[in-house]
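Entry type: protein chain
Record version: 2
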Amino acid sequence: MRLLLSYFRLRAVQTAALVYFLIAGGLTQLPLFNYVGYEFSAAMTIPAAFISGLLTVSFIRRHIHQPISRRMYLLVLAHYGVVNFLLLLIPLVVMSANAIVVKNCSFTRGLMYYGLLPVITMIFSISLAAAAGTLFRHARLIVVFIILGILSHILILTYAEPQLFAYNFVLGFFPGITYDETLSDVSTLLVYREFTLIASLFFVAIFFLSVRMLWPDYKFHENVQAFRIRKGDTVLYGAALLCLIVLAYGHFQRDVLGFQYSDTDIQRQLGGRAATAHFIVYYPPVKLTDSDLQILKAEAEYNYSTVVSRLKESLHPGEKISVYLYPSGESKHRFIGTSNTNIAKPWRKEIHLTLDSFDDTFRHELVHVLAANIGLPVVRASARMGLNEGLATAIDWNWGEFSPHEYSAALQREKLLGDPEELFAYTGFATQQSSYAYIVTGSISRYLIDRFGVKSFKEVFPAAHFVESYGMPLHALIEDWENFLRTVDASSLPPETIRTLFAQQSIFRKTCARVTAERNAKAVQAIRVKDYAEAENEFSASFEDVQTAFALRGLYLSLLAGKKYDRVVDSYNALNERSMLRYNPGILFLLADALWLQGEVLHSLEVFRRIEEMKYSEAYTENAALRRVIVREPRLNQPLRDYFYGSAPDSVRAAIVTRLLRSDESRVVGRYLQADEFY
């Protein structure tokens, strides 16, 4: 204990303690980083790497010329580890205390990430610095450069390969910049951190081979002359060689282990390849028939001609865009690291989508790729996310029943427009709710294109030089746009629709975003396997932590499947009168179904009519109209109860539709459901 206390009397250690404290204090003010979870843990890996590495070099300098045996150096390294671990507890204590102010939904999971990320990074950095301290005269500089080089691997990998995520010896795991709130399966991170510890063991073996033989103060040729293989070195050489073999195995099997996927890996896994004049499409043949593929290729070329005519940009002769179509969000998440976000990599001329999202998002992503012609060098895009997404939304201009201009005018009417200028700042777009950010930047961009022409907007696009292109600053352009919005008729959009549509928060503003997202994902999986009791428990816990519309919809769906109709109605009635959840069309739809299944037909019809009038989306409007037809007809009640909530297999549901088609009274509904199944 006296020895450990002597370390903490050193000015370098006291400085490190202060740095950790200040960093943790700063993170308490940043949303998403202000509780013990993944983001906080990942952020702490970088200071942990530099501080533990530099401290270890300074410690080694004190010990290396002392008459210490190799066996005693084991204890010395253990002391280094203990000192750095105690220092690493400082930010953990600070952030744990912050739980008084900021809710922490899963402290245990946060501790797991803290152990897997900064603690293992500290061990790796100590072993690296110990080896460097015995081998190099300028060890501090070497350690800093190596750590920076390892961190740069994230940028290189995510730039050069399709994937957005990266596993890394320093950071541990980088999930990529996406709208997904769930992280990858932690089991892959566990395996990767085992390889990190093996790399640490390799550096420890190098340290013990060099200590007492090589001197960092000596010249290189003097160390070569002094080098001797001593008794007992065979074990160390064997350990180092074994570590290298295991690390080489991890590198060459990185696709099997889930650490990294090249475009070749993804193409091989998808299996199908088709070419058009401007695209190479990679797809799963089991999910697309030949006729489906021909339609998809034709739609791709049609969208290409549409974007070219609007953007006035095209591919260079001989260029083609690679389009990766994944069978599911889970498959896309495995290969590139995102389930919900469809992406383009303009510098690679790549688009990544799921099959079922092709119609809705392909043209938007295509704009990103063709805008590479006018983007900044290297990234081939704008420096501002608001300009990237604003241009894509403006050129695509496909938002459903209403245009971004109409939505923006309704936001202005409800005094929810906020400060649109912030969306064009470097980080402003990412910190806002996604629907709001896309719609508002899309409306502004379309207004500027329509008023000044696409050529002027393309001049602004790379670096946001509004004054040079338009002769006026951004805030003046936004004032003109707001005046234009006052001429747009948004009367068809009810206030509750706008407030509900834009009530969701950005991940940076949500409480326990990662924990609740993972809990919701587990509940969704339970619904898929028809374990409704488990789904009910998970969604209930999620809603208790954070009252989100997604969790409440999932809970109601679980209750309906379990025939607990009264609980759905009681739960809705218990919601706060001012809660926007009372106006969410998904929640209202399930409430109306519960009333129908209870036998309260008139009340159910009233709620379905209310959903239609909201005009929240074409899907909700159409399905509410269908439900009103079904609810009014008593003969449809029982078979369609089984169809929607009977947990019946597909064969039984198909038989229900067949019976409906045989009856004159139900044939129209039967045809609609049959068409829906075919789609």
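Comment: DSSP finds 31 helices and seven strands in the chain.
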